[in-house]
Amino acid sequence: MDSYKIAFDINGNDNGIFAAIQASVEFAQKNPHFNIILIGPQSQIQDLITEKYSTFPQNISIIDNPNIASNPDNIRASLHEDTSMNQAIELVKNQQADAVLSSGNSGLYLATSTFKLKRLPNISRAAFMPIIPTIIGRKFLLLDVGANIDSKSDFLVEWAKIANVFAKVILNTQKPNIALINIGTEDSKGTEVVREAHQILKNDKSLNYIGFREPRDILNYVCDVAVIDGYGGNLVLKSLEGAILSFKKLLKEKIMMTPTRKLGFLLAKNAFRDVAETLDYRNVGAAWVIGVNGVAIKSHGSSDSKAYLGALNQIKIALENNILAKVKKAIENE
Amino acid sequence: MDSYKIAFDINGNDNGIFAAIQASVEFAQKNPHFNIILIGPQSQIQDLITEKYSTFPQNISIIDNPNIASNPDNIRASLHEDTSMNQAIELVKNQQADAVLSSGNSGLYLATSTFKLKRLPNISRAAFMPIIPTIIGRKFLLLDVGANIDSKSDFLVEWAKIANVFAKVILNTQKPNIALINIGTEDSKGTEVVREAHQILKNDKSLNYIGFREPRDILNYVCDVAVIDGYGGNLVLKSLEGAILSFKKLLKEKIMMTPTRKLGFLLAKNAFRDVAETLDYRNVGAAWVIGVNGVAIKSHGSSDSKAYLGALNQIKIALENNILAKVKKAIENE
């Protein structure tokens, strides 16, 4: 069996470094052919390990780097600082690691991955692509969710091709349904950018393009790949997440109002548990950075160990299926 | 007490004309100083009335017009057809009615209102503005939700001024909190359009502008007026609605799976009822057409009588508070 190395920048989580360690230990124990390189504050990592674990997996190593960017908004300066993020990405660049995972600043991670790993041939822009759960259990890829404010129709088409490969591998679908997310389903609807992309994709025989879909139905499962400009995609993602969080909050408040309702909740509790599992936000916490010459994923800044484990497992599937080579082949066939 | 006339185009509802009649009767009985002019298929209306009501309010009249646009996408041709929508809007134009309500084709209604009523001075574009409920019970105005695909920063600023007046009147708030909905809260986030509007609104002392807000928190109540370009606003609205519908559907499925869960649901049923009342979509079914020289509102194409009643009650508040004059004053003070 091939072996793989994952560079894991563990600084930059709002809740400290333990969730990353916990997920790494669990993942490393289950996957002896993977090596995890933790990049973070070495002595703190070692103290935590000594405190919490009797044995420590041999396939985890540590690189001491406690530094995060002094000002993540200053990308030019940040690129040259000795940070754990830069070091993690450089491990991939220098082929000392096969993939990189970070929960640091999103904008900086995207810019640094693009700058250090370079864009893939024929790809104009990198994009963020999370996996989103639907109510029927199937998941879909949504992109771009905010890497790009101004998108062109070509970007959407290029992203569709890359996401098509990811959907085959990560979602295990033979012929992924690709949709453009739009404010209506008729050809005339939406921005010029999305209408142009629609015309190009309709004529692309390499993709199973199914046309425009509206965000209203998206969580019921309408497609395997949902392509949209970064501005729209970010609004959609945050609206979907926000609406569900608000609804749950309100329902909880109304349930706690009387003892009878509380009893009813206890009896129906497993239904709520099932719903939470189906729509687990921790599936959404990680977003692929696509379009760069490397396997890179971004975890949410407040990821817990389950969220990190989800990201590590996605990386595993991606590497074991040689995803980068497949992506390159798909976009070189142009 | 002043008396008012509402022109009600009752064609164009997917479920027929009865919901409109039902809402009109209920509204007319409660509000003798309002006259409702139903524009629709007269004999069918009269048959329904005879069948369902022993007495018919004297403050409802009927204009016979069973016609809808032959091709609503052809706006130029539709403007000259003898349709109930055109007739309803013309009643307002000719000061034979004070407000117009329709659930016909959205794009056509917007174009026709703009063409026949004309835009208000200093206003570049008309916009759609629904009232959205939040989980704390307060409501907010969201605009534009799709009247304009390409928006400029000036449009957002103009809409903010109009919506500020509507929020005072319709939401009964003294100093409405105005926000721009954006993909982040820092000054540097978002499109050039929204960043420019942000700078203009920050310096506008006539408005209580509170800055950028993200759609993630919007249903928890963050502002009274949420301004966004029409493309983004439509995506946000459909994502919010869709996420809640999907979540409810999934929860229902999971509850129906076992007898114990069903029993629990029965005990907690009132909590669900409370949630449904707080987030009643029928408050969202109607959207104001703002920026035109007239009081115009659009109801959803599948409105039931409660949704229509909501729209009629909004019109009532608007007219009794002389909203159009207040809007004109606010935008003339430039």
From TrEMBL, chains A, B:
<comment type="pathway">
    <text>Lipid metabolism; phospholipid metabolism.</text>
</comment>
<keyword id="KW-0443">Lipid metabolism</keyword>
<dbReference type="GO" id="GO:0005737">
    <property type="term" value="C:cytoplasm"/>
</dbReference>
<comment type="function">
    <text>Catalyzes the reversible formation of acyl-phosphate (acyl-PO(4)) from acyl-[acyl-carrier-protein] (acyl-ACP). This enzyme utilizes acyl-ACP as fatty acyl donor, but not acyl-CoA.</text>
</comment>
<dbReference type="Pfam" id="PF02504">
    <property type="entry name" value="FA_synthesis"/>
</dbReference>
<protein>
    <recommendedName>
        <fullName>Phosphate acyltransferase</fullName>
        <ecNumber>2.3.1.274</ecNumber>
    </recommendedName>
</protein>
<keyword id="KW-1208">Phospholipid metabolism</keyword>
<dbReference type="InterPro" id="IPR003664">
    <property type="entry name" value="FA_synthesis"/>
</dbReference>
<dbReference type="GO" id="GO:0006633">
    <property type="term" value="P:fatty acid biosynthetic process"/>
</dbReference>
<keyword id="KW-0012">Acyltransferase</keyword>
<keyword id="KW-0594">Phospholipid biosynthesis</keyword>
<keyword id="KW-0963">Cytoplasm</keyword>
<comment type="subunit">
    <text>Homodimer. Probably interacts with PlsY.</text>
</comment>
<keyword id="KW-0808">Transferase</keyword>
<dbReference type="InterPro" id="IPR012281">
    <property type="entry name" value="Phospholipid_synth_PlsX-like"/>
</dbReference>
<dbReference type="GO" id="GO:0043811">
    <property type="term" value="F:phosphate:acyl-[acyl carrier protein] acyltransferase activity"/>
</dbReference>
<comment type="similarity">
    <text>Belongs to the PlsX family.</text>
</comment>
<keyword id="KW-0444">Lipid biosynthesis</keyword>
<dbReference type="GO" id="GO:0008654">
    <property type="term" value="P:phospholipid biosynthetic process"/>
</dbReference>
